Amino acid sequence: MGSIANFTSPPQLFTRRLLQQKTCIQMETRRLLQPSKALLTTTSDAAQQLSTTTLVIQEEKIGVLLLNLGGPETLEDVQPFLFNLFADPDIIRLPKLFRFLQRPLAHLISILRAPKSKEGYASIGGGSPLRRITDAQAEDLGKFLFAKNVPAEVYVGMRYWHPFTEEAIHKIKMDGITKLVVLPLYPQFSISTSGSSLRLLESIFREDEYLVNMQHTVIPSWYQREGYIKAMSTLIEKELEKFECSEKVMIFFSAHGVPLAYVEEAGDPYKAEMEECVDLIMEELEKRKITNAYTLAYQSRVGPVEWLKPYTDDTIIELGQKGVKSLLAVPISFVSEHIETLEEIDVEYKELALKSGIEKWGRVPALGCEPTFISDLADAVIESLPYVGAMAVSDIEARQSLVPLASVEELLAVYDSQRRGLPPPVTMWEWGWTKSAETWNGRAAMLAVLVLLVWEVTTGEGFLHQWGILPLSLHWPTP
Ligand SMILES: C=CC1=C(C)c2cc3[nH]c(cc4nc(cc5[nH]c(cc1n2)c(C)c5CCC(=O)O)C(CCC(=O)O)=C4C)c(C)c3C=C
Ligand SMILES: [Fe+2]
Fold this sequence. Notes:
CATH class of one domain: Alpha Beta
Number of strands: 8
Order of helices and strands: HHHHEHHHEHEHHEHEHHEHEHEHHHHH
GO cellular component, one term: mitochondrion
Number of helices: 20
Pathway: Porphyrin-containing compound metabolism; protoheme biosynthesis; protoheme from protoporphyrin-IX: step 1/1
Main location: plastid
Largest sheet: 4 strands, parallel
CATH topology of one domain: Rossmann fold
Structural class: alpha/beta
Radius of gyration: 24 Å
Strand content: 5-15%
CATH architecture of one domain: 3-Layer(aba) Sandwich
Bound molecules: the ligand C=CC1=C(C)c2cc3[nH]c(cc4nc(cc5[nH]c(cc1n2)c(C)c5CCC(=O)O)C(CCC(=O)O)=C4C)c(C)c3C=C, fe (ii) ion
Subcellular location: Plastid, Chloroplast
Strand order of the largest sheet: 2-1-3-4
InterPro entries: Ferrochelatase, Ferrochelatase_AS, Ferrochelatase_C, Ferrochelatase_N
């Protein structure tokens, strides 16, 4: 199995190299689009070519699988959605010995977190708009692909809520797709998002003969694509125009955070990709004569462990103290509106900013179905097609493409070889005499004991049974 150079070398270097490879990709794209041009010709020769081309396209049924997080559609969905999220070993990674606690712990944390989450979802209309927006993006992507003469079915597979990835895969099989492009809807790669979705996909692929034989490729991240950078820059430019003195506005990039250990211990390229993405957007804005001050911070942390810094809330307070008066928030890690933009940024951070002395607040909308963005995603899919199923023979070429490509298996192999295990991001305790230690250690110990007891009593397995403290098989008294 080959290794993927982009994930073993520093991501910034890799991206720079990718940008130098445009010519190669342009050639590939031209080659791919040649038969499509023939479709438009009207001579009899061309008609024959057209029927051959159509035949080839019909034999090869192209599918695009969009991967996203998923979100609760009603308030009743919130707790089971949170359970699915926390039951994911890429979100809470327990030491091997304690893996059996994953589900009970997820159950407990989801119950504890649900009231706060429900409040948030209630304030944005009682559920997440993520499914509706992702479905609309899928539909538009299909239309753009068709218009670019690459007819393809587009599927949506969510990680933690409907339509689940398994449901999408079922449809892909039913439709007889032969070539699949996997496209996570996260511009930057993180182990906790695209990585987790790909891990699930890998396990589904492995267990299914049809899927094992289906050719596929993955576009793990696409933050460096010109179309995406330009679309983001245009949105920023438009929002800046709404301020009176637009040149005095601080552009405030706010990205979803991840626990620091993901980056520092597990080699998550998320932070490097995020920083590079911001640099590319600012370079594009500079070309448009926009040279505002800017900053990047990380939002939405969960639990007491350290997450990527600076934190969005701390940064807003600091900027207020430094006398910044106008702020334009740019949600940089999302391509659709959801709780983190509609509630956290629009309500919580805006309120904090106004309290901190910032007088004018604006927010760039998420890209959603913005046509230049979707058209660029369609180009990314088209550019990836020559590499579908060709990873083993030509993965050097694939690495040189504008969209860094890989197969699910190869990507995860690289990650797994680098991973040294992650401390749980939502650890409910902090060891040592830190400020929250007393409370959290106490709670965690109680919870752990409780979970262990419930587990032992219900399953009849565990330490207490092994040590003979509880009888080896426990029978409930029958009435
Ligand atoms: C780049 C995007 C995201 C990263 C990275 C990410 C990491 C991450 N998230 C949690 C915990 C929660 N995330 C929740 C919602 C949520 N997260 C993302 C994106 C990223 N998460 C999105 C798009 C959403 C919203 C979906 C929606 O319903 O609209 C939630 C639930 C909401 C809440 O209670 O705050 C949790 C919990 C962790 C622990 C993590 C990294 C390890
Ligand atoms: Fe999240």
